[in-house]
Structures are given as C-alpha cells and as structure tokens.
Amino acid sequence: VFQDSQGRTLDYYGELRNGRANGRGLYACREGQKFMPRYTGEFRDDQMHGYGVKTWHAGEYAGNKYEGCFYEDKKHGKGRYTWNNGDVYEGLWVHGPRCG
User: Where does the signal sequence lie (predicted)?
Assistant: First the structure.
C-alpha cells in the first residue's frame, strides 16, 4: 500500500527498494476509489516510470487503455492509446499530452 503523486492510496504488488515501488509491479485502486486505473509495468520511486500498460475500468474512461512509456507518472515517449469507442492514437507523448 502506498500513496501516488496525487495523494491517492493504492495497492501495490511488485518490487520494492528502500520501501518504495521500484522495478516491475502492478498497482490497482483501493476500495472506494472506483475511478482509479490499473497499471502494470515499471516503477521508480513510487511513480510510473519506464514501459507499462494503464487501463481504466470505471467512469467515463472505462475501457480506455494506454500502452507505452512513462516518465515521472506521465505518458512520455512512444505509446499507443486506445479509446473505448475503438479510436487509436499511436505516436509520441511529452510529459502527459500527445504530440500529434
């Protein structure tokens, strides 16, 4: 269990170093935080960092999926985002927003 950069409590399963999520792992929402996505991939200092897959399971983003690179908890680098209506964007992201 840890808090992400936005102060939300998450269940974490994976590698730890110095008491923090580092290496490969998975985080999922806690009970009562139904709009939180699930992330499986690489972490550094409790943040999504490296390659991973983030999926949304509730709310307006239910069914959306991002697969690609993260940097300090944000989409960054090459990635593929699939919306729940079937639309896809594959390309570059810079500190969160897509480029293109």
Answer: none
